[in-house]
Design brief:
Elements (H helix, E strand, L loop, with lengths): L11 E4 L2 E7 L5 H10 L4 E6 L5 E8 L5 H27 L1 H13 L6 H11 L12 H10 L1
Antiparallel strand pairs: 1-2, 2-4, 3-4
Helix pairs in contact: 1-2
């Protein structure tokens, strides 16, 4: 039994203080790339371009001086996060219909009744016919009876 595992790396090039990648949108959906890029904006400057149809160019520029080892590390971290974002994107796409169904059922199956509506209904059900303004104070009856 031979191990036919193929290692595929995300190709990138290094320049002065920056890492450059060209991504195929067939493999890395644009929304996944944008999500990944957003997570790196606090660590480096992120520039996105469209070098060709269905391709996204990503340039990660260090905010200060950066050695080749630091840039290699940055590229590796970007690649890992990109895989994470692609997986999240694909799971989101595959479960979209289920989420839409669940939300629609939750929002539209029963009319929502707030606690305020329940309290108002309870007050309406009480017998307050003797006091048309519904401002009767319970101790008024006893205080008037004692004085009279």
């Amino acid at each position: 039994m031979s191990d036919a595992t193929e290692i595929v790396e995300l190709p990138y090039t290094l320049a002065e203080r920056e890492v450059r990648l060209t991504l195929d949108e067939e493999v890395y959906p644009r929304d996944a790339v944008l999500g990944c890029a957003y997570l790196f904006v606090d660590r480096c400057y992120v520039y996105l371009t469209r070098p060709a149809d269905k391709q996204l160019g990503v340039r990660l520029r260090a905010k200060g001086e950066a050695s080749e080892a630091v840039l290699d590390s940055l590229a590796g971290e970007f690649a890992n996060e990109l895989l994470n974002q692609v997986l999240r994107f694909r799971i989101g796409e595959s479960s979209r219909r289920l989420r839409e169904y669940t939300f629609a059922k939750a929002f539209f199956s029963q009319p929502a009744r707030t606690s305020i509506d329940a309290l108002l209904a309870e007050l309406d059900a009480e017998d307050l016919a003797e006091d048309p303004l519904e401002i009767q104070v319970p101790w008024q009856k006893t205080a008037g009876a004692e004085n009279g």
